[in-house]
Amino acid sequence: MQKKRDDGIPVREACVKKWFLVMKLICVFTLFLVLKASANGFTQKKVSLDFEKANMLEIIQELRQQTGYKFFFNHNELKKVKDVSVKFVDEELEQVLDALLGKVNLSYRIEQGVIIIVPGKVKNEEKEVRIIGKVTDEKKQPLPGVTVIVKGLTLGTSTDVNGRFSLTLPKMQNVSLLFSFIGMETQEIKYTGQDSIHVVLKESAEQLEEVIVRTGYQNIDRRKLTSAVQTIKMDDIKVAGVNTIDQMLEGRIPGMIFMQNSGQVGAAPKLRIRGTSTVLGNREPLWVLDGVVLTDPVNVDPAQINDLDFVNLLGNAISGLNPNDIEQIDVLKDASATALYGAKAGNGVIVITTKKGKAGPPSVTYSGTGSFTRRPRYSDRAIYLMNSKERVDVSRELVERGVYYNNVDSWVGYEATVQDYYNGAIDYKEYNRLVSYYETLNTDWFDIVCQDVFSHSHTLSLSGGSANIRYYASLGMSDENGAIKGENNKRYSTTLNLTANYERFAARFQLQGNVSSRNYNPSELGVLDYAYNMSRAVPAFNPDGSRYFYQRTSSTIPVYNFNVLNEMDNSGDKTKGNSINMQAHISYNVIDNLKLEGTLSYAVSNTNQSIYFTEDTYYVHKLRADRTERNNMCPVGGELRKNDVRNTNWMVRVQANYTKNVGRDGKHNVSGSAGLELNSQRYDGFNITRRGYHRDRGKLFSSIPQTYTGYYNQFMASANALGVITENLMNSVAWYAMAGYDYDNRYMVNLHIRGEASNLFGSRANDRMMPIWALSGRWNMKQDILRSVDWVDDMALRGSFGYQGNMLSNQTPNMIIRQEADYTGKYGEFRSKVAHYPNPDLRWEKTASTNVTLDFSFLKNKINGSVSWYYKKTRDAFLTKTISEINGTTQYVVNSGTLVNKGIEVSLNFTPINRVGLDGGKRGFVWRIDPQLGQVLNELVNNAINNRNNVLRDEIEYTDMLTGDVDIAGEPLNTFYSYRFKGLSPVDGSPIFYGAEDELQEELSKKYNNMEREDVFLEVMERSGRREPYLQGGVSNYFGYRNFGLSFNLAYSLGNKIRLLKLCTEYGTTNPNPSSNLRREFVNRWRKPGDENYTNIPALNTVAGAHASPWWNSGTNVTHRIASNIYEMYDNSDIRVVSGNYLRLSSLSFRYNVDDRFCKKLGLKSAYINLTGTNLFTIAHKKLRGQDPTQSGSSPSVNLSVRPTYSCNLSITF
Strand 197-200 vs strand 128-136: parallel, antiparallel, or unpaired? Predict the structure, then answer.
């Protein structure tokens, strides 16, 4: 039975009628749009006319032939019109008809595709005149936004997107028009009654460079930019001897924090754009190449990447790119700029645009660079260590005071000589000779494990093409040697860019490929750390030149003869990589206002890492323990670790762009874009650790005797030995849209929105398509209220507000059980484990971002710049919560934090003197200075967890407080704490700390036992500061005269704190090992009562174990452990904390451009030679005594500092 409505009409029939009604409305609306578009298309047809005293019928006939359009008119009326003279070149039909018919008092209208000419209204030609025209540059490209004013009046207008303008003004004598545009010379044109005016503006000698901002989805004229984007040309930041793009960004981008924690070749810096918007997620920015997102070759855990002490030697997304192939870099900072990239863009986006071919004859360019890098030396200010005599003096004091040595792993140097003398192995004369030998030995460990190196790079490129087809191709090679022996980074790269245009079609194809090879010493060796901490009173070679081996041992392993060069020869960390990235882009102009685009990309990379130790290494020696069958973990051969990763990803994007000028004056412009994007990213990995490896026997493996059934069998049953296969797949689909409105190039509003779904979001139906959106606007005040202010060349105010989101990839609403391959005989089945704990209530991290920027240019572009203020607030930030092990895991992620980032950015450009080009050549003097400043204030706020001391993590250790690896409400991320130094004991010179005094043992023990662990830590420690700087920037300076140029770049960093390096690595348990060196500060140590009034350096520990287990660390007096010993407390006390502020001369460059006449004689188009020095010196706090401020004393080992490099670059184009 059919269900009836109240009026008796069946529901199905009603639906059919509604359907037909909707279809009719759609057809009518479509027909209207077609007719409207057709009418608009008529008037936008371009024509050319050149007649002298011709009648109107001839002119109309010519227009009919050129356009193919139908004209309807009265012949008798047109015969009455007097003859006219007209000249138009490539003008739109609308402009021609307005000018032509307006002169003879006629007008027109369009009906059903026919242009109808009718009599016009009678005009009082004596009262007003209408001027029309077009403005282009020297390349005949239309210039929108050109200011056109009548000289002497405030009356004026501006050109539309096609460079056209119209102006109606009272008829007057001597009318002159002024045309002004950013970066162009202002022109004055007299109006003498012409039909139209064609003005060509030339670039100013003091021009503000024309910039097109490229966001990956849009190309935006800088004068229409509403978002927070910093654009830099690669030629402005390229530094000879620096082979990766990210290392060139230090001090160049306001609001970007740059941290380089190692000077090892190929080490990637850490970048933060406008602070940190997540606690647990990846904090690095997103890299984009020509509109396509790049991914890291290896999927490293975010916790490791975020660790400020982690040295990334595996490379990042742009490690394989050749800087010589890059044209421009755009850094997207706010929500409006990054919204179209979705959830993965919460940390900012860096868009790289590669070079494209230019029309013209083939042009070949060769660029070659040779670089010299200086190794560390004991004479460097950064190496504040004892020499041999000072180190022997410490050993002598220990011996003379009868101090007992325990836990000594190496009897060597002075201590070994004393032992031999006491045991009668040598006589007194030999004893004195050896002591004198060790006091003057001064082994140069940095010379032994490091080297001064030469590196070189070469690029050969080819560019050219016609107006329709253009090409750019390059081959690049870089061979970069490290200051640490055995370390090297080689890269071979190629790039191909093809661009084609044909009528309404445009296409682009590009290919980037690279092959790389990286060689390092394994991190277990800690080569630089060894050189820094090794006593100079220990030799590396025997008197005959052979290697000196000293004995190393412990309570669990037998004696081993150790020499660091032997360790380096018999171990290695080798990584081979290759990648290829292909893109295809096509666009089609359906009509003049509508363009369709499609992009397809595919990328694949392979990374193969091998780390090996032969059986002749201390690492393998320790695995063998006491060499018994039960304890031996590597009975035969050495060890090999393999880690292979394959990364594949593809992207498909379709996009439609529409723009339309509304109104006869063309002052209203509406635009919109919409698109759909599909992405897939996959990591496939395999890693395994095998023992019994013989590198010197064909890289084969030995079978292990079955008698080794102890710990070795346990190792063979582990996942590392069996091999681990990993698969990580991320698929996503996204839609996005952009809408914009522009009135007269004065007021602009844009809306960006994106929604995306991904398998990372699980089954959360409500959260899958969370929209990310942003609204932004711009007011070009120069085109409005400041039009007549001569000294203001440009001024604009732009602002934005939007929301971004983020979701962790390892969270799911469902319990994920991983089936293990571990078979247990006891239960007769395989084991399983909880891979992901169910988290159905987890919500997105949401970041609200506000940005306000003022752009300005004064005094004929001598002063340019921008000032920005931003505020970002992240709600529902992810934090960890400890749960019971009975759940199969110990941690749980919750939405319980709020992050705030705010700051000010200043970017300035001063050109006090610019005489270049005044005589048409490369003459005159130019001086340009560009200061940059960016402030980032970060704070973690807690709204969900209410505990008295604001610690937002349940389980923390005292070491987390010392390293800044703890989240505390009201404090910036990476805030670290230090023990409160009270002074030195007047009895024995040992350090004393507030909250750990021996005389208050009973009182403090009772107090601490009734306190929570976090309360105890905050009682004995105090806040030292943040490890990340909050203010960074730079100053670029350029002097030019004729063919010579001199430039330098300063980078500065303010606001962070660092620890001084430890006095000694083993110091604290008892006393320094005979093989260990100490910082030179220890020369001024406490030696006798009263010295505590003059020094804060503790005395030698004269009683073995006296301070190794104090009352607060015995395990019986207090519940919570606050340190290992008082010397660990000293190294991590507030007295060892200093400012990390620094000013660095990051580069100094001298360039000579070979004279054009000489180049022509050699058959060259151009050539230059460039001499550059990088990282030449650093000014920092005097207490650092030369310690590199980028080297944190909190790091478990000493890393290589950024080294000075001297380079020569030659570039030739022919």
Answer: parallel
Please report, for the chain, the start and end positions of each structural domain, with discontinuous segments joined by +: 124-204, 213-358, 586-770, 815-843, 979-1029+1057-1139
- Topology (CATH level 3) of domain 213-358: Ferric Hydroxamate Uptake Protein; Chain A, domain 1 (2.170.130)
Q: What is the radius of gyration, based on Cα positions, of the chain?
A: 37
Between helices 93-103 and 11-43, what is the axis angle to 10°?
60
Backbone angles phi, psi at 362, to 5 degrees: -55, 135
1013's tokens: 């662990």
* Residue 198 identity (one-letter amino acid): H
Q: Report pLDDT for 1110.
A: 72
Specify whether the CB–CB gap between 736 and 654 falls below 8 A.
no
What's the burial of 842, exposed, middle or buried (CB within 10 Å: 0-12/13-18/19+)? Answer: buried
Pairing type for strands 286-289 and 349-354 reads parallel
**Side chain identity at residue 81, one-letter code:** V
- Give the least confident one: 210-214, 833-837, 1106-1110: 1106-1110
Q: What is the mean pLDDT of residues 340-366?
A: 90
Per DSSP, the three-state class of 389 is helix
Round to whole Å and give the CA distance between 592 and 46.
Answer: 12
Tell the burial category of 703 from Cβ atoms under 10 Å away from its Cβ (0-12, 13-18, 19+).
exposed
What are the helix (H) ranges across 1054-1164?
1126-1131, 1156-1161
pLDDT value for 25? 41
* Cβ–Cβ under 8 Å, residues 498 and 508: yes
DSSP code for 374? P
Q: Which residues pair with 940 in a beta bridge?
A: 899, 971
Task: Return the minimum-mean-pLDDT range out of 383-387, 667-671, 835-839.
Answer: 835-839
| CA separation for the pair 317, 1154 (Å, rounded) | 37
Local structure of residue 368 (DSSP, 8 states): E
Q: How far apart are alpha carbons 843 and 770 in whole angstroms?
A: 10
**This model's pTM is above 0.70:** yes
Q: How far apart are CA 845 and CA 803, in angstroms?
A: 10
- Cα 58 from Cα 61, distance rounded (Å): 5
Q: What pLDDT digit, counting tens, does each position of 959-986 carry?
A: 889 988 888 888 888 899 999 999 999 9
* Greater model confidence, 740 or 790: 740
- Give the span between the Cα atoms of 480 and 484, in whole angstroms: 12
Q: Which pLDDT value is given to residue 207? A: 46
* Residue of 643, 504, 529 lying closest to 575 (CA atoms): 643
DSSP 8-state assignment for residue 717: T
What is the rounded distance in angstroms from the CA atom of residue 671 to the CA atom of residue 1091?
77
Place of tokens 């959260």: 767
Name the pLDDT band for 23 (thresholds 50, 70, 90): very low
Longest dimension (CA), the chain: 135
Question: Position 43: which residue type?
Answer: T
Query: Quick one: pLDDT at residue 596?
Result: 95
Q: Would you state the structure tokens that stand for residue 657, as one six-digit string?
A: 């762009």
Q: Is a pLDDT exceeding 50 seen at residue 29?
A: no
User: Region 1123-1151: what's the mean pLDDT?
Assistant: 91
Burial status of residue 378 (CB atoms within 10 A of its CB: 0-12, 13-18, 19 or more) = middle
Q: Is the pLDDT of residue 823 over 80?
A: no
1034 contacts 1051 by C-beta, under 8 angstroms: yes
Residues 1021, 994: Cα–Cα separation, whole Å: 8
Question: What is the architecture of the domain spanning 124-204?
Answer: Sandwich (2.60)
Residue 421 phi, psi (nearest 5):
-70, -45
| CB-side neighbour CA atoms (13 Å) of 199 | 30
Residue 1068 DSSP class = T
Q: Considering only 31-35, 431-435, 1109-1113, which range has the smallest mean pLDDT?
A: 31-35
Residue type for 225, please? L
